[in-house]
Amino acid sequence: MEIQTQLKQALQEIQEALLGVSTPNELADLKAKYLGKKGIVAEWMTAMKNLPNEEKPRFGQAVNEAKNQINDLLEAFRTQIEDRMVSDKLAKEALDVSLPGRVFPIGAKHLMNQVVEEVEDLFVGMGYTVKEGPEIEQDLYNFEMLNLPKSHPARDMQDTFYITEELLLRTHTSPVQIRTLLENGGKKPIKIICPGKVYRRDEDDMTHSHQFMQVEALVVDENVTLADLKGTLLMLARKMFGEDRQIRLRPSYFPFTEPSVEVDVSCYKCNGKGCPMCKNTGWIEILGAGMINNAVLDATGYDKTKYQGFALGVGVERLAILKYGIDDIRAFYTNDLRFNRQFK
Ligand code: PHE
């Protein structure tokens, strides 16, 4: 067969074969078949050797042209395949930006933490540091060194869960007073608050919970007086219940403070006129406080002739209940999201 015809035929074959090619691998096979070492073009080159010399140049030129054409054809097709693969991939991975996004639920602070942080903010602003103490506490710190010896009747109001005779779940944050006094070795002034969980052996009902929270404040320094305590209490009452509030102190009893006071805030509902909220008294009790008892200073190595101090302990739930009009203390602990979400 005339070489020109053969070449034309080969080109046509390739064009037909290309119709069935869709991947780079298939294309590579086709290329090998024509342009490879043992391919058809190579065969033509071998055939050329047997031609008479005068025909060789024309034949060689034709083969070369055909080779270039085949190559061009395959290369053009390769670009096509690659383009198609890229656009297929893009189509497959396309992001539909009009789809609605996934909604991630955003958490919020529990009301307890919000109230604790509010109290912390106030005290930190007045130069206090925030301390923590263990919830499993020694009888020694929870009672004994707070001037509540083993037989003391005031222990009855604070029955708790005992781990051993000497280890218990703390009934108040006051043992942190003892820990801090001991740490400071009878020398340095102290200005701390301590928020934390406390426990008592109470039956749970609307107003009692076997676990609740307190914030304790302790100040020890030279020249600390009841007036300092009163000013601090007024700040706290106004921070929590509004700038118009007044406070009043009633005599009370805690073994670790002397004198001790019960603190009332003027009713924020009726502004002291008398309403169901304050049981018509105009006042609402919010916390206990007092000047550090000398017995406590003695027990912790502070010189009572040089140092005085005050302490206060406030129930966090009580603050929240009053401030947000909550009617059941158990709502803080049952984790009903409908309750929690109200305070987002
Ligand atoms: N710890 C006392 C209580 O839980 C409160 C209190 C703290 C009273 C500090 C006086 C001083 O009842």
Commentary on this structure:
- The protein is of the alpha+beta class.
- It has eleven helices and nine strands.
- It has helices at 3-19, 24-35, 40-49, 56-92, 111-125, 139-142, 175-183, 226-241, 294-299, 316-324, 337-340, and strands at 129-130, 136-138, 167-169, 190-199, 211-221, 247-254, 257-266, 283-292, 308-315.
- Strands 1-4-5-9-8-7-6 form a seven-stranded mixed sheet, with helices on both faces. A two-stranded antiparallel sheet has the order 2-3.
- A hairpin with a 2-residue loop joins strand 6 (247-254) and strand 7.
- The protein is rod-shaped and about 130 Å long.
- The N and C termini lie far apart (91 Å).
Low-confidence region ranges: none
Helix content: 40-55%
Query: What spatial form do the alpha-carbon principal axes imply?
Result: rod-shaped
The major sheet is characterized as: 7 strands, mixed
The side-by-side strand order for the widest beta sheet comes to 1-4-5-9-8-7-6
The number of helices is: 11
Which H/E pattern describes the elements? HHHHHEEHEHEEHEEEHEHH
* Radius of gyration, whole Å: 44 Å
Percent of residues in beta strands? Answer: 15-25%
How many DSSP-defined strands?
9
Structural class: alpha+beta
Q: Look at the structure and give the mean pLDDT.
A: 93
**C-alpha end-to-end distance:** 91 Å
- Ligands and ions found: phenylalanine
